[in-house]
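pipeline/complex-builder :: batch 7 item 3
reading input block
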Amino acid sequence: MAELAALAENAVREHPAEALGYSPIDGLPALRDQIAARFATPELQLSRENVLITTGGMQALELLGKLFLEAGSTIAAQSPAYLGALDAWRPSHPRYHAMDLAAADCDPHRAMDGARFAYTVPNFSNPTGKLVGTAMRKTLIAAAEATGCWLVEDDPYGMLHYDGTPLPSMIGLYAKAHPGPYRGPVIYLGTVSKELAPGLRLGWVIAAPEVITAMTTAKQGGDLCTSGLCQRIVLDALSSGLTERIRPATLALYRARRDALCRAMSDHLGDLFDWEVPVGGMFVWATAKDPALDTDRLLRTGLDHGVCISPSSVFDPEGRNHNAIRLNFTLNPPEKLAEGIRRLAEATRSLLLENAA
Amino acid sequence: MAELAALAENAVREHPAEALGYSPIDGLPALRDQIAARFATPELQLSRENVLITTGGMQALELLGKLFLEAGSTIAAQSPAYLGALDAWRPSHPRYHAMDLAAADCDPHRAMDGARFAYTVPNFSNPTGKLVGTAMRKTLIAAAEATGCWLVEDDPYGMLHYDGTPLPSMIGLYAKAHPGPYRGPVIYLGTVSKELAPGLRLGWVIAAPEVITAMTTAKQGGDLCTSGLCQRIVLDALSSGLTERIRPATLALYRARRDALCRAMSDHLGDLFDWEVPVGGMFVWATAKDPALDTDRLLRTGLDHGVCISPSSVFDPEGRNHNAIRLNFTLNPPEKLAEGIRRLAEATRSLLLENAA
């Protein structure tokens, strides 16, 4: 926090024109270069032209909608899907081809055929917290190439990796097969919200230059530019290594909270829900063992018991999934997480009793 | 600049949760209260519920589009109109009822009949720099009440008042006739971009609570929230009186630049263009004396002569006005403004010679 405070002061004092004036629509050139350098590999060759700075990751989702969707367009979306993305695209009333990327019979090629883009969160998705395996990542890329469908790789949680080895990104896998200046179908979205601070509202898109140019035009009509002050702070946080230095502490904090939540779940929810312990991210997805348990009702009963959960219906474009819940473990300390789970167990039992009555 | 740097440092150090975390979608409560207090009068009673914080004034324009426009909706718009507003609303391909508020035969009632909202910049409009008189402001309010049309009062330039006395705002005029908690048809838009710093991307909407609630929902799908860091800096700049303290210097600087531009125009453009010296704002609007002068062509000829102007066509939804130009006087020092006008006179004469050939 002290370092960020100093970076904020320094940004205004040493770079007043950049921090306080209008920025280029597509972002400060030095920050675009920094993001390009951060993600480039010998195969994935990136330059400034591959990078757009956005006002948080959320704006990137909105710009995708502006760029690709007309009324009634189709989106192929990993299911369940991030609530915020569904919100961003709601104005054009899209149709969805759902892709359950964990299902054995999932056919991305069929889902992407006729879709404007495919939306995926391969690392620790919101809401499920699950990883999409490398084989499925390759299948998605192949489907994008075969169908001509853009493939969105939204990656806000990739750095929150607690166990094991990170899997290769789809944009990286594509570049391995097509090395050179990047022109591919994968549109990669990143943000500092999870690794630095959401209050800076700073994200980025890495994509083919034609996509960056078109999204820049869409951004002009949205907010003209992203705050120069926030851009300058992020540039200095990245180039000074602040983001790397704080990462071990962030990971240790969140790992301990995940463990505390999952331990409390084992103690209190084992007979009520099924779940997997996530190897990263911010969420545990738990499915009720009793198919008659309606998690929309559990939300209300939970609030009566002093605990708040996200019901699965809000992550379904059609609002039909009523049997699971999303639990966040990064916001609260272990003892509060444990108390929340105790209350959730009570609320669930109380609702099941009502059902039985 | 030193004060702003200190405010930025202080925001992170003293208010880390507000500055670095997610803010409420509608803005920090203390900032909403501050804006309400700043604009309230005994008749215009404002509370937090009347205020939405936006990511710059531009986002407010985009949210109006999201809220009120469907494909082919009609907007009653002051003509010529702010380019950025036309950009913000382009995705829904609106039809426009043009209102030339300086024309004797202007009929706002007819223009607003059937329109989703009316868009006006009563103080020193972009692009014309002109004031809408008090009588016409009252006519616009009466038309809004008679037609049920929302009346947008976009006011980024109101504080840049160099001569004479500011005119009453439309939201204030409405409240004089309807004192009490504000529930009226005027939607007032403000920003710190002109009085403090555009790099903070901080604006606000003051409107009836039902409008604020609906725009808040639209903002959620756009960028989730405005940067807490920027909000905290603006809150402290307003409450510490920084904005008031720097105002005299800003006005003196811009007044001198306006005078320098208009003096150079008198010296070099008197036989080529007609214009009025604006009493505020950032722009002079000049109409060519020769109706055959195409200012789209003048843009290109000007660039060849090393000067850039905004041609009138970009401020017309149909791109039909080709006979005027917008000149900005706030960005450059007097000697650069004078040199620009010399080059513009050369470019104009060269183009007129081409026309005659």
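note: The first strand of chain A starts at residue 44 and ends at 45.
queue -> next item
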